[in-house]
Design goal:
Organism: Marinoscillum luteum
Distance between the termini: 33 Å
Helix content: 40-55%
Number of helices: 7
Strand order of the largest sheet: 1-2
Keywords: Heme, Iron, Metal-binding, Signal
Radius of gyration: 16 Å
Protein name: C-type cytochrome
CATH superfamily: Cytochrome c-like domain
InterPro entries: Cyt_c-like_dom (IPR009056), Cyt_c-like_dom_sf (IPR036909), Cytochrome_c-type_DH (IPR051459)
Number of strands: 2
Structural class: mainly alpha
Length: about 150
């Protein structure tokens, strides 16, 4: 497994170094090379984690499952508060939520075994896929967000 991760990292670095024009943030400032490489790495790792832990309900393409499970693609709920999303992934959620004007009331199971970096990778992947564009959710930020989760509300 360690060799796979090392190989994957080398591949990511190689692919991103063959570059096109530099990516830019929402305010049109260039993203530094290190952040761009980290974003690519988080996207690759996050996709795998998403497929393992999330796609069964939210679907591989992030469209959700009818009125049972909400979409992540183009989701106003997701993009409104990534801090809460990190908490939902870790602690789960019961009760009603509204996503893009539609109410959903299925329990989301907790993933208490996921580490802060794994949650950061999932949040980065879902917040930068299917029309969403939020940039990287850094592990240090997600670690802080998880410390501040209000588990009583989840």
């Amino acid at each position: 497994m360690k060799n796979f991760k090392s190989t994957l990292l080398i591949l990511v670095i190689f692919l991103t170094s063959c570059g096109t024009s530099p990516k830019k943030t929402a305010d049109e400032k260039p993203v530094d090379r290190r952040t761009e490489i980290r974003l690519t790495q988080y996207m690759v790792q996050g996709k795998g984690l998403y497929q393992t832990y999330c796609s069964n309900c939210h679907q591989a393409d992030g469209t959700g499952l009818g009125k049972l499970y909400p979409p992540l693609a183009g989701s106003d709920y997701l993009m409104a508060d990534l801090k809460e999303v990190a908490c939902l992934i870790k602690n789960g959620k019961t009760g009603e939520i509204t996503v893009n004007g539609v109410s959903y009331n299925q329990m989301m199971p907790a993933n208490t075994h996921l580490t802060p970096i794994e949650i950061a990778e999932i949040v980065t992947y879902i917040s930068n896929s299917w029309g969403n564009e939020a940039g990287i959710s850094a592990t240090r930020d997600v670690t802080q967000w998880l410390k501040n989760c209000n588990q009583a509300e989840n």
